[in-house]
Amino acid sequence: MDEPVDVVKVDQLSKVYSGHGKELTVLKEINFSVKAGESVSIIGPSGSGKTTLLGLCAGLDAPSSGSVSLFNQDISKLNEDQRAVLRNDKVGFIFQNFQLIPTLTAIENISIPMELKGLKNIKSTAMSLLDRVGLSDRAKHYPNQLSGGEQQRISLARAFSNNPKLLFADEPTGNLDGDTGAKVEDLLFDLNRENGTTLIIVTHDLELATKTQRRIRLKNGEIVEDSRV
Amino acid sequence: MNISFLIKTALLDARTQWGKLVLFIASIILGISALVAINSFNDNIVADIDNQSASLLGADLVVTGNKAIPVDLATMLDSLPGERATEHELLSMAYIPKNDGSQFVRLKAIEGAFPFYGEFLTTPASANETFRKTNGLLVDDGFLKQFKLTAGDSIKLGTQILPIAGSLDNNPGGAGIGSGFAPTIYLSLETLKSTDLMQAGSMIDYAYFHQVNEALDVDEWKSQRRRTFSNESMRIRTINDQRENLEEAFNALNTFLNLVALVSLLLGCIGVASSVFIYIKNKVNSIAVYRCLGMKANQAFFIYFLQIMIIGMLGSMVGAALGSFIQVVLPKVFSDLLPFAIETTIAWPSIFQGLTLGFVITSLFAMIPLLGIRKISPLRTIRSNVEEGAPTRDPLIYMVYGLIVISLFLYLFSITGSLLDSAIFIIGLLVAFFVLYLFSKLLIWAIRKYFPRNWSFVFRQGLSNLYRPNNQTQILLVTLGLGTAILSTLFIVQGLILENVASFDEGEQPNTILFGIETNQIEDLKQKTREFDMPVVEEVPIVTMRIAGWQGRTKSEWLADTTRTARRWAINREIRVTYRDTIDDSEKLIAGNFVGSVNPGDSIFISLDEGYAENLDVEIGDEIEFNVQGMLVKTYVSSLREIDFTSMRTRFFIVFPLGVLEQAPQFQVLVTKSPSEDVLNAYRSDVVKTFPNVSVVDLSSILKTLNDILSKISYAVQFMAGFSILTGIIVLLSSLLLSKFQRVKESVLLRTLGASRAQILKIYATEYAIIGILSAATGIILSLVASWLLVTFQLDLEFRIQYLPLILVFFFIVSLTVLTGLWMTKDVVQKSPLETLRKDV
User: Fold this and answer.
1) What is the ipTM for the molecules in this complex?
2) Any CB–CB contact under 8 A between A171 and chain B?
3) Distance between CA B31 and CA B724 in Å, rounded?
4) Structural domains of chain A, ranges and CATH numbers in brackets
5) What residues in A contact B291, CB-CB < 8 Å?
């Protein structure tokens, strides 16, 4: 059997914010890689650099030094539009605050990545995803007509709509109560398994972290633990 | 990715958002409607000038002069084929026996079938014929209404009491204004002769009308004979001349209206830019999500560009429709200033032009915030405090600024026709922009530097809002300041124009002039004046004469000389001269010696008005020979005077000394002052009954007419300025809306932490009051500079600061800013913090 390839490879990654004559180092020479199909949680206290690391890995931000490769492509060598194409093609996102487009209905929100990709028969795929997250009766509802849990399920459906190879989740249950959060978690891992997606979750929630195969703990911008279950 | 997806997304994204673009649409609608309304109105005027020139002139060719046409010229005219008619026009008094009233009137005696084009609208319709065939009068309907007269009543003109044949309901050939001062009465020439008003020395204007067949080119005919006629002080006018005169007269109105439209459009554009900016700010998160999901920067830009363009196009069309509707109202606003009724039709070229220009300019202004979309980072999805690049460093933004300046310049050039004027306007605008920007920078710096740390929390909070990150101080100061500057410049200039014209004030000046007095009537008339307890302020003899030659050459020799510098009008005019031994109060001797009297047989020394001497190109010591009703009189220029033309006195280009003209045929003018309108009416009726040939002119009625005209102009100006004011308010609203988004979050937090409603309101009141005060003050200072430049260099008027309108503008802007600012925060203070927080502001 072939060795799984590196989906994410982070090499000597640093991020420094400067302003008002001062420099603030958020990430210091981070190194790690994530294999295809792996599920990884990035944990650590507030301000440890978790979200910054996620942003850099997903190509939403540019590093101060070092590099991030997604699917063997150094994304720091891509321009913003090329990174956008890469995201659309291979990456999915789930956010703590759902980030649904308020002016689009549930089904329209789910359809965006497919539309961007120029796929056909979008509606049926979107409907089946909607069905998969148990919200087929909410297709025409706007985000503000949905509860937090429902919005995050729509967000999950959207994240999987382009069949991503890699899924980034930023505190996916952070804005949800315990029960709702648990249901969303289950759904997230189920979908992940079904699709064979590589999953990177940033979370405070240690219980959620235990559900991933691997935990990377950050403290003051450095990796202090990288353990596999 | 296909384009249809982007279009679909644009439409889907916007469908619940149309309401948020109300200010954007309102700005476009107002800007474009002003432009289309004014352009259409101008188009219709030009079209109507073409249509109506014939009926305004009433004939193909008209020869006018203030003397009867000489025989040789009459022969020339007689050779023209076609119909002819004549008109004798003179000013006189009319006495109304029915109610013992009197009125100064313009008599027009017609012989022939004038007008050949257009028609007299009369009540009854038959009056148009009656007045030509009988001794009946066709009288201006306003005059009839004023004196409650109807057909069948009578009016005394000169020695005759004549019946009224009917009323004249239209006013062919003249604007509505001014008719209140000397209303027109049409009558037949025979009837006029019977009144004995046509006497030697009467000031009669003659007009000879011709309708020729189409085969004859009257303009060609005119150009061959113009000189011959003008040598005899007769003027030829054709329909083409009439058209050109009208077009020239409307040019000024045209330019003014176009500038007003441009100001409205510019304010509208500021509204467009700031409302699109608000809209995009609202959309930043959605855009970040699109970007995160793989949309390219240019695709995201295209989605919103498409939305704005579609709405912009719809708004432009509504604006064009509204503008076309408003131009139906415009002729009513300007009706008293126009010589004919404007026919309003839909002016498609103007609509097209307005739509194109409006659309181009508003799109360019909308591009400024739209281009920023390309810089929105997908990182915003996980970090809400990401700064979106620096859009001002985007080279495309500079290109858009450049295009705005170029298109404005081209438009200005197309309406003013002057590169310099267009450049000055644009530079002025840029300077104003820069000054306001600099001032806002200075303000932010000063507040930070000298922050009053021991003032109350509420005040400090309001003050610190001015410099915190993402503050709106600069954009508010610039937009509000620019709006204030444009509005108050309009007010200042308008006020100064009106004030300069209205400086013909009544004051202690005489208010009644009697003219057409025969020498043997003067003593009796003075006696009568004193009986009414009215002073004889001036008693002036007038002798009419013409120039026969000067500097040793005859008038004909001078006229034939192509190298002469003397002006034709100065040579040819019939001169009304007086004689006296002193200089008048309203005159100033500026050169030579004023000679008060001469002995019989001595050289005659006369005094000339400085301007007249210049036009005749004569100097002190030069010889001038006059033809005084057949007798040649040789004189020498001994002095030059400067005359104050604004004083209500008689004034003469030429003054003779005593001892020369006493025996020449002459008439007298008497100037007096009546204490009240009642006394004047009684005096006027008495004079008209005893001396029917004497005209009594009430100067206060001229002033009243002048005021009337001015208030009509001012009304028209204010109507147009209303467009700018309305757009200005929209700009203000959108500027303040901009800051709302910055403030809501902080207010909610403050409310959560326990700030009272009153505290929040005070914080905002402080912030908006400072912005309002500073932008209004800066705007007003800028407008003072701009209007000083305009008034001094463009309009050539005296500049004076008018405090009242400026104070009003200041308080208007400040209160509007504070009230709108507080109104914007009503959501925050009225709702519970929880409710607002749940909305994820």
Assistant:
1) 0.71
2) no
3) 9
4) 37-65+78-228 (3.40.50.300)
5) 84
